[in-house]
Amino acid sequence: MDAIVTAGGIPQPKDPLYAYAKGDSKALIDVAGKPMIQWVLDALSDAKNVDNVIIIGLTPKSGLTCKKPTYYLSNQGRMLANIVAGVDKALELDRKTKYVLVVSSDIPTIKSEQIDWLIETCAQTKDDIYYGVCPQEVMETRFPDSRRTYTKLKDMQVCGADINITHVRMATEHLDMWENLIGNRKSPVKQASIIGFGTLFMLLTGQLTLDEAVERATKRIGIAGRPIIWEHAEPCMDIDKPHQLEILRADLAKSAPKPVRKPRQLAAKKEPARVKPIQKPAAKSSKPKSAPKEKSAAVPSKKK
Fold it and tell me: Which domains, ranges and CATH numbers included, belong to the chain?
């Protein structure tokens, strides 16, 4: 399965991460010695079920690395447009492609085995979209200070995952509806109002279960959907605020390989200074020294 990595966001002055990005892409903010997105690419590199990686919003000049064949596309300006461009590229690579993995660049703690689990789990059915959620207790056990926003349902409180699987036809159908839902992805109440008043009322009164919420949403759009309940918090732990950035910096610093220290070189042994042999004074000659010849005084010439 091909993976589409969305990395087109550039924090603006009002964004909490603006000071960290310094005018560049959010995906390139340093996290424990690597760009945020590089941690995601490392996980995709080691995922056995990932074939190609399509990065939206960056260029090869970003200096990123990935073991899988990697393709770069420019930022299309909107989240949905970026996903559509990624799907088009996946179909260009293989016209038989049916599903793609859509991954955000801001979940640096994601693991390769979690990516493989998601792909293998979703392959068990033939739904149009698979949307992951993380229960509050799972998130707060792993990241107790994350302060995520949760949707209160009848059977649980959940936050959304930032790695999901969708059928390629979702990039060509119901685009207006998807645009509204994606644009309000941080507000479950607004999303419920888009789906319908009845859904909104049931959500606000705590009468909706997770399955009912998915059923109502997919029926409204006209697709088949399946919720994926994560037992791990990493796929749902994204970075939107400075405190979340610092949490993940500290978390990943623990697992980051420590630089190998070169062994200290032993100081070279100094060779002892060579002692010059004491030279004996030369023996005095028994012959008397000849007296120095006296210079004859110059006789001044008489003037005529």
Answer: 2-255 (3.90.550.10)
**Percent of the chain's residues with pLDDT above 90:** 53
Task: Supply 179's token pair.
Answer: 């645009």
Paired sense of beta strands 129-135 and 163-167, if any: antiparallel
> Is-contact 243 145, C-beta < 8 A?
yes
Residue 137's Cβ-count burial label (10 Å; 0-12, 13-18, 19+) is exposed
CA–CA dist 72, 298 (Å, integer): 104
Q: Which tokens belong to 80?
A: 């949905």
Q: What is the pTM of this model?
A: 0.77
Please name every residue paired with 166 in a beta bridge, in sequence order, or none if there are none: 100, 129
Q: What is the pLDDT of residues 235-283, one digit of tens each?
A: 999 999 999 999 999 999 997 666 555 555 444 444 555 555 555 555 5
What pLDDT, in 10s, does the model give residues 110-161?
Answer: 999 999 999 999 999 998 888 888 999 999 999 999 999 888 888 889 888 9
